[in-house]
Specification:
This protein is α/β, with parallel strands linked by helices and about 475 residues long. It has 18 helices and 16 strands. It has two domains: about 1-215, 3-Layer(aba) Sandwich (Rossmann fold), CATH 3.40.50.720; about 310-465, NAD(P)-binding Rossmann-like Domain (Rossmann fold, 3-Layer(aba) Sandwich). Helix 1 packs across helix 3. The longest helix has about 30 residues, at about 215-245. The chain is elongated and about 75 Å long. The termini are far apart. The structure holds uridine-5'-diphosphate-xylopyranose (UDX).
Protein backbone atom coordinates (compact mmCIF):
# COMPACT_ATOMS: atom_id res chain seq x y z
CA UNK A 1 0.00 0.00 0.00
CA UNK A 2 1.12 3.57 -0.58
CA UNK A 3 1.29 5.43 2.70
CA UNK A 4 2.20 9.01 3.64
CA UNK A 5 3.55 9.65 7.14
CA UNK A 6 3.42 13.31 8.14
CA UNK A 7 6.06 14.37 10.68
CA UNK A 8 9.50 12.79 11.03
CA UNK A 9 9.87 12.99 14.81
CA UNK A 10 10.27 9.86 16.95
CA UNK A 11 6.87 8.44 16.12
CA UNK A 12 6.76 9.36 12.42
CA UNK A 13 10.27 8.22 11.64
CA UNK A 14 9.90 4.88 13.40
CA UNK A 15 6.41 4.28 11.97
CA UNK A 16 7.58 5.22 8.46
CA UNK A 17 10.62 2.93 8.58
CA UNK A 18 8.64 0.03 10.07
CA UNK A 19 5.74 0.38 7.61
CA UNK A 20 8.32 0.23 4.80
CA UNK A 21 9.73 -2.92 6.41
CA UNK A 22 6.25 -4.46 6.26
CA UNK A 23 6.38 -4.00 2.48
CA UNK A 24 4.53 -0.71 2.01
CA UNK A 25 5.68 2.26 -0.08
CA UNK A 26 6.09 5.12 2.33
CA UNK A 27 6.58 8.85 1.78
CA UNK A 28 7.79 10.57 4.92
CA UNK A 29 6.75 14.23 4.88
CA UNK A 30 8.31 17.00 6.92
CA UNK A 31 8.60 20.75 6.46
CA UNK A 32 12.10 20.83 7.95
CA UNK A 33 14.30 20.62 4.87
CA UNK A 34 17.52 20.27 6.86
CA UNK A 35 16.11 17.19 8.53
CA UNK A 36 15.01 15.77 5.17
CA UNK A 37 18.45 16.37 3.68
CA UNK A 38 20.08 14.60 6.64
CA UNK A 39 17.73 11.65 6.24
CA UNK A 40 18.39 11.44 2.51
CA UNK A 41 22.13 11.51 3.27
CA UNK A 42 21.83 8.44 5.43
CA UNK A 43 21.88 10.08 8.84
CA UNK A 44 19.68 8.83 11.68
CA UNK A 45 18.65 11.85 13.76
CA UNK A 46 17.63 9.85 16.84
CA UNK A 47 19.27 7.16 18.96
CA UNK A 48 17.02 4.18 18.32
CA UNK A 49 17.98 0.52 18.06
CA UNK A 50 17.50 -1.02 14.57
CA UNK A 51 16.41 2.31 13.08
CA UNK A 52 19.69 2.90 11.19
CA UNK A 53 19.38 -0.61 9.69
CA UNK A 54 15.79 -0.02 8.57
CA UNK A 55 16.54 3.40 7.10
CA UNK A 56 19.53 1.96 5.27
CA UNK A 57 17.42 -0.93 3.97
CA UNK A 58 14.56 1.18 2.60
CA UNK A 59 15.93 4.66 1.93
CA UNK A 60 15.39 5.62 -1.70
CA UNK A 61 13.34 2.46 -2.39
CA UNK A 62 10.32 1.88 -0.18
CA UNK A 63 11.00 4.97 1.88
CA UNK A 64 11.05 8.42 0.25
CA UNK A 65 11.41 11.79 1.96
CA UNK A 66 9.48 14.84 0.85
CA UNK A 67 8.41 18.33 1.92
CA UNK A 68 5.40 18.23 -0.38
CA UNK A 69 2.40 17.14 1.67
CA UNK A 70 -0.03 17.80 -1.19
CA UNK A 71 1.68 15.38 -3.57
CA UNK A 72 2.26 12.80 -0.85
CA UNK A 73 -1.46 12.79 -0.01
CA UNK A 74 -2.46 12.43 -3.65
CA UNK A 75 -0.10 9.47 -4.05
CA UNK A 76 -1.26 7.63 -0.91
CA UNK A 77 -4.25 5.61 0.30
CA UNK A 78 -3.52 6.21 3.98
CA UNK A 79 -2.03 9.30 5.61
CA UNK A 80 -0.57 8.84 9.09
CA UNK A 81 -0.42 12.10 11.01
CA UNK A 82 2.48 12.02 13.46
CA UNK A 83 3.16 15.70 14.11
CA UNK A 84 3.94 17.16 17.54
CA UNK A 85 1.24 17.90 20.13
CA UNK A 86 3.18 19.87 22.76
CA UNK A 87 1.47 20.83 26.01
CA UNK A 88 0.03 24.33 26.38
CA UNK A 89 0.43 26.23 29.64
CA UNK A 90 -2.80 24.82 31.00
CA UNK A 91 -1.64 21.25 30.35
CA UNK A 92 -3.85 20.36 27.40
CA UNK A 93 -2.34 19.38 24.06
CA UNK A 94 -1.65 22.06 21.46
CA UNK A 95 -3.30 20.68 18.33
CA UNK A 96 -2.47 23.50 15.94
CA UNK A 97 -0.01 21.36 13.92
CA UNK A 98 -2.62 18.62 13.58
CA UNK A 99 -5.15 21.21 12.42
CA UNK A 100 -2.92 22.74 9.78
CA UNK A 101 -2.02 19.29 8.40
CA UNK A 102 -5.74 18.40 8.27
CA UNK A 103 -6.41 21.60 6.31
CA UNK A 104 -3.71 20.80 3.80
CA UNK A 105 -4.84 17.20 3.43
CA UNK A 106 -8.33 18.39 2.58
CA UNK A 107 -7.22 20.26 -0.54
CA UNK A 108 -5.23 17.29 -1.82
CA UNK A 109 -7.85 14.52 -1.63
CA UNK A 110 -8.30 13.03 -5.10
CA UNK A 111 -9.78 9.61 -4.24
CA UNK A 112 -10.65 7.66 -1.06
CA UNK A 113 -8.16 8.30 1.77
CA UNK A 114 -7.91 7.18 5.35
CA UNK A 115 -6.44 9.88 7.57
CA UNK A 116 -4.89 8.14 10.57
CA UNK A 117 -4.08 9.97 13.81
CA UNK A 118 -0.82 8.63 15.16
CA UNK A 119 0.12 11.55 17.42
CA UNK A 120 -1.10 11.27 21.00
CA UNK A 121 -4.22 13.39 20.96
CA UNK A 122 -7.22 13.95 23.22
CA UNK A 123 -10.56 12.32 22.64
CA UNK A 124 -12.63 14.10 19.96
CA UNK A 125 -9.57 14.96 17.87
CA UNK A 126 -10.58 12.59 15.08
CA UNK A 127 -13.97 14.26 15.01
CA UNK A 128 -12.30 17.67 14.77
CA UNK A 129 -9.95 16.49 12.04
CA UNK A 130 -12.97 15.24 10.12
CA UNK A 131 -14.73 18.59 10.50
CA UNK A 132 -11.66 20.54 9.40
CA UNK A 133 -11.25 18.39 6.31
CA UNK A 134 -14.96 18.83 5.45
CA UNK A 135 -14.86 22.57 6.12
CA UNK A 136 -12.04 22.90 3.64
CA UNK A 137 -14.07 21.42 0.86
CA UNK A 138 -13.50 17.65 0.81
CA UNK A 139 -16.38 15.35 -0.12
CA UNK A 140 -17.61 13.38 2.97
CA UNK A 141 -17.43 10.15 0.99
CA UNK A 142 -13.85 10.72 -0.06
CA UNK A 143 -12.18 10.08 3.28
CA UNK A 144 -12.42 8.65 6.81
CA UNK A 145 -10.52 9.60 9.91
CA UNK A 146 -9.18 6.81 12.13
CA UNK A 147 -7.11 6.66 15.28
CA UNK A 148 -4.18 4.27 15.58
CA UNK A 149 -2.39 4.99 18.85
CA UNK A 150 1.26 4.02 19.17
CA UNK A 151 2.74 2.41 22.25
CA UNK A 152 6.39 2.96 21.37
CA UNK A 153 9.00 3.32 24.07
CA UNK A 154 12.11 5.25 23.23
CA UNK A 155 15.10 2.97 22.75
CA UNK A 156 12.93 -0.03 21.82
CA UNK A 157 10.53 1.79 19.49
CA UNK A 158 11.29 -0.36 16.43
CA UNK A 159 10.69 -3.67 18.18
CA UNK A 160 7.68 -2.17 20.01
CA UNK A 161 6.21 -1.37 16.58
CA UNK A 162 6.99 -4.71 14.96
CA UNK A 163 6.33 -6.95 17.99
CA UNK A 164 3.53 -5.10 19.78
CA UNK A 165 1.39 -6.51 22.61
CA UNK A 166 -1.60 -5.42 20.53
CA UNK A 167 -2.54 -3.17 17.64
CA UNK A 168 -5.40 -0.77 18.34
CA UNK A 169 -7.31 0.72 15.44
CA UNK A 170 -10.13 3.14 16.14
CA UNK A 171 -12.30 3.19 13.04
CA UNK A 172 -15.86 4.43 12.72
CA UNK A 173 -16.43 2.87 9.26
CA UNK A 174 -15.86 -0.58 7.87
CA UNK A 175 -13.96 0.67 4.87
CA UNK A 176 -11.36 2.45 7.01
CA UNK A 177 -11.02 -0.62 9.27
CA UNK A 178 -10.36 -2.67 6.14
CA UNK A 179 -7.55 -0.37 4.99
CA UNK A 180 -5.87 -0.35 8.42
CA UNK A 181 -6.37 -4.10 8.74
CA UNK A 182 -4.51 -4.57 5.43
CA UNK A 183 -1.68 -2.28 6.50
CA UNK A 184 -1.03 -4.37 9.61
CA UNK A 185 -1.80 -7.76 8.00
CA UNK A 186 1.92 -8.73 7.70
CA UNK A 187 2.03 -8.53 11.53
CA UNK A 188 -1.42 -9.79 12.51
CA UNK A 189 -1.27 -12.60 9.90
CA UNK A 190 2.23 -13.53 11.09
CA UNK A 191 3.95 -13.36 7.65
CA UNK A 192 6.49 -10.78 8.84
CA UNK A 193 7.75 -13.11 11.57
CA UNK A 194 8.55 -15.84 9.00
CA UNK A 195 10.85 -13.60 7.04
CA UNK A 196 14.59 -14.30 7.25
CA UNK A 197 15.34 -10.58 7.22
CA UNK A 198 12.80 -9.67 9.94
CA UNK A 199 14.13 -7.57 12.81
CA UNK A 200 14.99 -10.00 15.66
CA UNK A 201 12.22 -10.59 18.19
CA UNK A 202 12.65 -9.14 21.67
CA UNK A 203 12.51 -11.46 24.72
CA UNK A 204 8.88 -11.11 25.61
CA UNK A 205 7.41 -11.07 22.10
CA UNK A 206 4.17 -12.96 21.66
CA UNK A 207 3.34 -13.12 17.98
CA UNK A 208 1.22 -12.60 16.01
CA UNK A 209 -0.30 -9.67 17.89
CA UNK A 210 -4.05 -9.30 18.21
CA UNK A 211 -5.77 -6.40 16.49
CA UNK A 212 -8.31 -4.54 18.59
CA UNK A 213 -10.89 -2.63 16.58
CA UNK A 214 -12.68 0.14 18.48
CA UNK A 215 -14.43 3.41 17.81
CA UNK A 216 -12.06 6.30 17.17
CA UNK A 217 -12.99 7.90 20.53
CA UNK A 218 -12.19 4.70 22.41
CA UNK A 219 -8.84 4.41 20.64
CA UNK A 220 -7.98 7.98 21.62
CA UNK A 221 -8.83 7.20 25.23
CA UNK A 222 -6.89 3.92 25.17
CA UNK A 223 -3.68 5.85 24.48
CA UNK A 224 -4.15 8.39 27.25
CA UNK A 225 -5.48 5.85 29.73
CA UNK A 226 -2.59 3.43 29.06
CA UNK A 227 0.06 6.05 29.68
CA UNK A 228 -1.73 7.46 32.72
CA UNK A 229 -2.05 3.95 34.16
CA UNK A 230 1.65 3.21 33.67
CA UNK A 231 2.60 6.55 35.24
CA UNK A 232 0.26 5.71 38.12
CA UNK A 233 1.99 2.35 38.55
CA UNK A 234 5.36 4.10 38.85
CA UNK A 235 4.04 6.72 41.29
CA UNK A 236 2.34 3.98 43.29
CA UNK A 237 5.54 2.02 43.77
CA UNK A 238 7.45 5.23 44.53
CA UNK A 239 4.93 6.00 47.28
CA UNK A 240 5.32 2.43 48.59
CA UNK A 241 9.10 2.95 48.52
CA UNK A 242 8.69 6.01 50.76
CA UNK A 243 6.72 3.94 53.26
CA UNK A 244 9.41 1.23 53.06
CA UNK A 245 12.04 3.82 53.96
CA UNK A 246 10.05 4.95 56.99
CA UNK A 247 9.46 1.46 58.38
CA UNK A 248 12.74 -0.16 57.33
CA UNK A 249 11.25 -2.53 54.73
CA UNK A 250 12.85 -3.33 51.38
CA UNK A 251 10.88 -2.12 48.36
CA UNK A 252 12.51 -4.63 46.02
CA UNK A 253 11.18 -7.47 48.16
CA UNK A 254 7.78 -5.79 48.23
CA UNK A 255 7.87 -5.47 44.41
CA UNK A 256 8.66 -9.15 44.02
CA UNK A 257 5.83 -9.99 46.35
CA UNK A 258 3.22 -7.90 44.61
CA UNK A 259 4.52 -8.13 41.03
CA UNK A 260 4.14 -11.93 40.94
CA UNK A 261 0.40 -11.47 41.24
CA UNK A 262 -0.46 -11.79 37.56
CA UNK A 263 -3.17 -9.18 37.97
CA UNK A 264 -0.50 -6.64 38.92
CA UNK A 265 2.57 -7.86 37.01
CA UNK A 266 6.23 -7.05 37.67
CA UNK A 267 6.83 -4.53 34.89
CA UNK A 268 6.81 -0.77 35.47
CA UNK A 269 7.15 -1.40 39.15
CA UNK A 270 10.70 -0.09 39.53
CA UNK A 271 10.98 2.67 42.10
CA UNK A 272 13.35 5.52 41.37
CA UNK A 273 13.52 9.28 40.96
CA UNK A 274 10.22 9.45 39.10
CA UNK A 275 9.15 9.20 35.49
CA UNK A 276 10.20 11.67 32.80
CA UNK A 277 10.37 11.74 29.01
CA UNK A 278 8.29 13.22 26.27
CA UNK A 279 5.18 11.14 26.97
CA UNK A 280 4.23 10.39 30.57
CA UNK A 281 4.46 13.92 32.02
CA UNK A 282 2.66 15.42 29.00
CA UNK A 283 0.05 12.70 28.66
CA UNK A 284 -0.92 12.55 32.34
CA UNK A 285 -1.42 16.32 32.27
CA UNK A 286 -3.35 16.19 29.00
CA UNK A 287 -5.57 13.35 30.21
CA UNK A 288 -6.25 15.35 33.37
CA UNK A 289 -7.28 18.32 31.20
CA UNK A 290 -9.44 16.15 28.91
CA UNK A 291 -11.25 14.68 31.91
CA UNK A 292 -11.81 18.13 33.41
CA UNK A 293 -13.26 19.44 30.16
CA UNK A 294 -15.58 16.46 29.91
CA UNK A 295 -16.85 17.20 33.44
CA UNK A 296 -14.92 14.56 35.38
CA UNK A 297 -12.54 15.65 38.11
CA UNK A 298 -9.79 13.01 37.79
CA UNK A 299 -7.94 13.90 41.00
CA UNK A 300 -6.10 10.59 41.09
CA UNK A 301 -3.97 11.97 38.25
CA UNK A 302 -3.05 15.05 40.32
CA UNK A 303 -1.73 12.73 42.98
CA UNK A 304 0.26 10.73 40.39
CA UNK A 305 1.95 13.98 39.31
CA UNK A 306 2.49 15.15 42.89
CA UNK A 307 4.20 11.92 43.93
CA UNK A 308 6.39 12.11 40.84
CA UNK A 309 7.50 15.63 41.73
CA UNK A 310 8.01 14.70 45.38
CA UNK A 311 10.22 11.78 44.39
CA UNK A 312 12.86 14.17 43.02
CA UNK A 313 12.72 16.30 46.15
CA UNK A 314 13.11 13.22 48.34
CA UNK A 315 16.21 12.26 46.38
CA UNK A 316 17.67 15.73 46.85
CA UNK A 317 17.05 15.41 50.58
CA UNK A 318 18.81 12.05 50.50
CA UNK A 319 21.89 13.62 48.89
CA UNK A 320 21.82 16.36 51.49
CA UNK A 321 21.52 13.97 54.40
CA UNK A 322 24.36 11.81 53.02
CA UNK A 323 26.73 14.75 52.59
CA UNK A 324 25.48 17.14 55.29
CA UNK A 325 26.23 20.35 53.35
CA UNK A 326 26.19 20.72 49.59
CA UNK A 327 27.97 23.96 48.72
CA UNK A 328 31.34 23.21 47.14
CA UNK A 329 30.86 19.43 47.21
CA UNK A 330 32.13 17.59 44.17
CA UNK A 331 29.58 15.11 42.81
CA UNK A 332 29.99 12.51 40.09
CA UNK A 333 26.74 11.89 38.21
CA UNK A 334 25.93 8.84 36.11
CA UNK A 335 23.07 9.47 33.72
CA UNK A 336 21.44 12.50 32.13
CA UNK A 337 18.87 10.87 29.80
CA UNK A 338 15.33 10.47 31.14
CA UNK A 339 15.85 6.70 31.08
CA UNK A 340 18.45 4.19 29.90
CA UNK A 341 18.96 3.39 26.23
CA UNK A 342 18.15 6.82 24.82
CA UNK A 343 19.78 10.20 24.24
CA UNK A 344 16.52 11.99 25.05
CA UNK A 345 16.66 14.47 27.92
CA UNK A 346 13.13 15.86 27.67
CA UNK A 347 11.61 16.13 31.17
CA UNK A 348 14.54 14.14 32.47
CA UNK A 349 14.45 13.78 36.26
CA UNK A 350 18.24 13.33 36.10
CA UNK A 351 18.69 16.72 34.48
CA UNK A 352 16.31 18.33 36.95
CA UNK A 353 18.44 16.99 39.82
CA UNK A 354 21.71 18.05 38.22
CA UNK A 355 20.32 21.57 37.79
CA UNK A 356 19.14 21.67 41.41
CA UNK A 357 22.53 20.47 42.68
CA UNK A 358 24.39 23.04 40.61
CA UNK A 359 22.11 25.69 42.07
CA UNK A 360 23.00 24.47 45.55
CA UNK A 361 26.63 25.21 44.69
CA UNK A 362 27.81 21.64 44.00
CA UNK A 363 30.48 20.92 41.39
CA UNK A 364 29.04 18.25 39.13
CA UNK A 365 30.85 16.01 36.65
CA UNK A 366 28.45 13.90 34.62
CA UNK A 367 28.71 10.95 32.31
CA UNK A 368 26.00 9.54 30.04
CA UNK A 369 26.63 7.07 27.21
CA UNK A 370 24.37 8.97 24.77
CA UNK A 371 22.85 12.15 26.17
CA UNK A 372 25.84 14.43 26.83
CA UNK A 373 25.70 16.22 23.50
CA UNK A 374 22.04 17.09 23.91
CA UNK A 375 22.63 18.16 27.50
CA UNK A 376 25.42 20.48 26.39
CA UNK A 377 22.97 22.27 24.11
CA UNK A 378 20.63 23.20 26.97
CA UNK A 379 22.72 23.28 30.15
CA UNK A 380 24.78 26.05 31.66
CA UNK A 381 28.51 25.67 31.34
CA UNK A 382 29.08 24.87 35.04
CA UNK A 383 28.35 21.23 34.35
CA UNK A 384 31.46 19.23 33.50
CA UNK A 385 31.44 16.08 31.39
CA UNK A 386 33.44 12.88 31.72
CA UNK A 387 34.36 10.19 29.22
CA UNK A 388 33.54 7.25 31.46
CA UNK A 389 31.75 6.46 34.74
CA UNK A 390 35.14 6.21 36.45
CA UNK A 391 36.23 9.62 35.22
CA UNK A 392 32.94 11.05 36.57
CA UNK A 393 33.69 9.44 39.93
CA UNK A 394 37.29 10.69 40.04
CA UNK A 395 37.88 12.75 43.18
CA UNK A 396 34.15 13.04 43.93
CA UNK A 397 32.68 13.33 47.42
CA UNK A 398 29.91 10.99 46.25
CA UNK A 399 28.63 9.32 43.12
CA UNK A 400 24.96 9.69 42.08
CA UNK A 401 23.25 7.20 39.76
CA UNK A 402 20.35 8.94 38.00
CA UNK A 403 19.59 6.93 34.85
CA UNK A 404 19.04 3.19 34.56
CA UNK A 405 21.62 2.50 31.83
CA UNK A 406 22.62 -1.17 31.79
CA UNK A 407 26.31 -0.31 31.85
CA UNK A 408 25.84 1.54 35.16
CA UNK A 409 24.64 -1.68 36.77
CA UNK A 410 27.89 -3.49 35.97
CA UNK A 411 30.60 -1.18 37.22
CA UNK A 412 33.92 -2.42 38.52
CA UNK A 413 33.30 -1.52 42.17
CA UNK A 414 36.93 -1.73 43.20
CA UNK A 415 37.97 0.67 40.50
CA UNK A 416 35.06 2.91 41.45
CA UNK A 417 36.05 3.14 45.10
CA UNK A 418 39.65 3.86 44.14
CA UNK A 419 38.45 6.82 42.06
CA UNK A 420 36.08 8.31 44.63
CA UNK A 421 37.34 10.67 47.31
CA UNK A 422 34.79 9.16 49.69
CA UNK A 423 33.17 5.81 48.88
CA UNK A 424 29.57 7.05 48.89
CA UNK A 425 27.06 6.09 46.21
CA UNK A 426 23.52 7.51 46.10
CA UNK A 427 21.55 5.44 43.65
CA UNK A 428 18.26 6.82 42.33
CA UNK A 429 17.58 3.69 40.27
CA UNK A 430 18.31 0.81 42.69
CA UNK A 431 20.88 -0.78 40.38
CA UNK A 432 22.90 -2.44 43.17
CA UNK A 433 22.46 -4.82 46.06
CA UNK A 434 23.11 -2.85 49.28
CA UNK A 435 25.02 -5.76 50.85
CA UNK A 436 27.34 -6.07 47.85
CA UNK A 437 28.06 -2.35 48.02
CA UNK A 438 28.76 -2.54 51.76
CA UNK A 439 31.09 -5.50 51.17
CA UNK A 440 33.05 -3.28 48.77
CA UNK A 441 33.42 -0.63 51.44
CA UNK A 442 30.79 1.65 49.93
CA UNK A 443 28.21 3.60 51.91
CA UNK A 444 25.19 3.12 49.72
CA UNK A 445 21.85 4.92 49.63
CA UNK A 446 19.05 3.86 47.31
CA UNK A 447 15.25 4.20 47.00
CA UNK A 448 12.92 2.35 49.36
CA UNK A 449 15.70 0.34 50.99
CA UNK A 450 17.74 0.94 54.12
CA UNK A 451 21.07 2.54 53.38
CA UNK A 452 24.03 0.20 53.88
CA UNK A 453 27.32 0.98 55.47
CA UNK A 454 30.63 -0.91 55.28
CA UNK A 455 30.71 -1.53 59.02
CA UNK A 456 27.41 -3.37 58.79
CA UNK A 457 25.26 -0.77 60.52
CA UNK A 458 22.69 0.54 58.07
CA UNK A 459 23.76 4.15 57.43
CA UNK A 460 21.30 6.61 58.85
CA UNK A 461 19.55 3.89 60.86
CA UNK A 462 20.77 5.30 64.13
CA UNK A 463 19.49 8.50 65.57
CA UNK A 464 20.66 9.29 69.11
CA UNK A 465 21.28 5.62 69.80
CA UNK A 466 17.85 4.46 68.70
CA UNK A 467 16.85 3.05 65.35
CA UNK A 468 14.90 5.49 63.16
CA UNK A 469 11.78 3.38 63.62
CA UNK A 470 11.89 4.20 67.33
CA UNK A 471 13.24 0.82 68.52
CA UNK A 472 16.35 0.88 70.72
CA UNK A 473 19.49 -0.44 69.08
CA UNK A 474 19.74 -4.23 69.67
C1 LIG B 1 6.29 5.69 27.31
C2 LIG B 1 5.36 4.48 27.18
O1 LIG B 1 5.97 3.35 27.82
C3 LIG B 1 5.04 4.20 25.74
O2 LIG B 1 4.10 3.13 25.65
C4 LIG B 1 4.47 5.46 25.11
O3 LIG B 1 4.20 5.25 23.74
C5 LIG B 1 5.41 6.63 25.28
O4 LIG B 1 5.71 6.81 26.66
P1 LIG B 1 8.90 6.17 27.05
O5 LIG B 1 8.58 7.58 27.43
O6 LIG B 1 9.81 5.92 25.90
O7 LIG B 1 7.54 5.37 26.73
O8 LIG B 1 9.60 5.51 28.32
P2 LIG B 1 9.26 4.39 29.40
O9 LIG B 1 10.16 3.24 29.20
O10 LIG B 1 7.82 4.11 29.48
O11 LIG B 1 9.73 5.16 30.73
C6 LIG B 1 9.15 6.41 31.11
C7 LIG B 1 9.76 6.94 32.38
O12 LIG B 1 9.37 6.16 33.50
C8 LIG B 1 11.30 6.97 32.40
O13 LIG B 1 11.73 8.16 33.02
C9 LIG B 1 11.66 5.76 33.25
O14 LIG B 1 12.91 5.91 33.89
C10 LIG B 1 10.50 5.75 34.24
N1 LIG B 1 10.22 4.41 34.78
C11 LIG B 1 9.79 3.41 33.96
C12 LIG B 1 10.34 4.19 36.16
O15 LIG B 1 10.72 5.09 36.92
N2 LIG B 1 10.02 2.94 36.65
C13 LIG B 1 9.59 1.93 35.86
O16 LIG B 1 9.32 0.84 36.39
C14 LIG B 1 9.46 2.16 34.48
Amino acid sequence: MRIAVVGSGYVGLVAGACLADLGHDVILVDNDNRKLAALRNGETPIHEKFLPELLQRHRGHRLQFSDNLHEAVRASSAIFVAVGTPPTESGDADLSYVESVAREISGAINDYKVVVEKSTVPVYTSEWVRRIILRNGADPDSFDVASNPEFLREGTAVTDFLFPDRIVIGCDTERSAKVLGEIYEPLTGGAYYQRADAIPAPDRASVPPPIIVTSSKSAELIKHASNAFLAMKISFINAVASVCESVGANVNQVCRGIGTDTRIGPRFLNPGIGYGGSCFPKDVMAFRAVARESGYDFRLLDEVMRINEEQRQRFLRKVRSALWTLRGKHLGVLGLAFKGGTDDIRESPALFLVQALLQEGCKVTAYDPAAMERTQEVMNSNLKYANSPYEAAHGADALLILTEWEEFANLDLERLTSELRYPIVIDGRNLYDPDVMAAHGITYYSVGRAASHPDGIPAGALKNGVMKNGLPKA
